[in-house]
Amino acid sequence: MIRSRSATEDGAAGAPVAPAPGETVRAERVAAPFAGVATVLVREGDSVLRGQPIASIEAMKMEAAIAAPAAGRVQQLAFADHAHVQGGDLIALIAPA
After folding, report:
1. Whole-angstrom Cα distance, residue 31 to residue 80?
2. What pLDDT is attached to residue 22?
3. SS3 of residue 43 by DSSP
4. 40 to each of 4, 25, 55, how far by Cα in Å?
5. What are phi and psi of 75, to 5 degrees?
6. Separation CA 32–CA 83 (nearest Å)
7. Residue-wise pLDDT tens for the chain (97 aa)?
């Protein structure tokens, strides 16, 4: 299976994303903390606060919240509703407010 959602390919989870040419805004990567089924709680374009749950993850009948690392706007989601993820998989990109 090809996995293109890894948040650790070019840096640790939470590391800034390289801006596009001519772009100066950097987004925060939000990654899955462990393997499980992740469910997105926000939509692209939503404003979020630091610490606000943006997704949840369930594994072995345990559930954990995945929080926004900083206030901003949800720039991109790696999947629309829910998906099986591995630890380090990208969940979302949060652009600074």
Report:
1. 15
2. 59
3. coil
4. 18, 24, 4
5. -85, -40
6. 11
7. 334 454 444 444 444 445 556 555 578 999 999 999 999 999 999 999 999 999 999 999 899 999 999 999 999 999 989 999 999 999 999 999 8
d(CA 38, CA 55): 7
Measured from the Cβ of residue 37, the count of other Cβ atoms closer than 10 Å reads 14
Q: Select from 60, 27, 25, 22 the least CA-distant residue to 44.
A: 27
Residue of 19, 16, 43, 12 whose CA lies nearest to 28:
16
Tokens for 77? 């989601």
* Cα→Cα distances 86→34, 38, 52, 62, Å: 6, 10, 22, 15
| CA 3 vs CA 6, 41, 70, 74, 78: distances in Å | 7, 22, 26, 22, 11
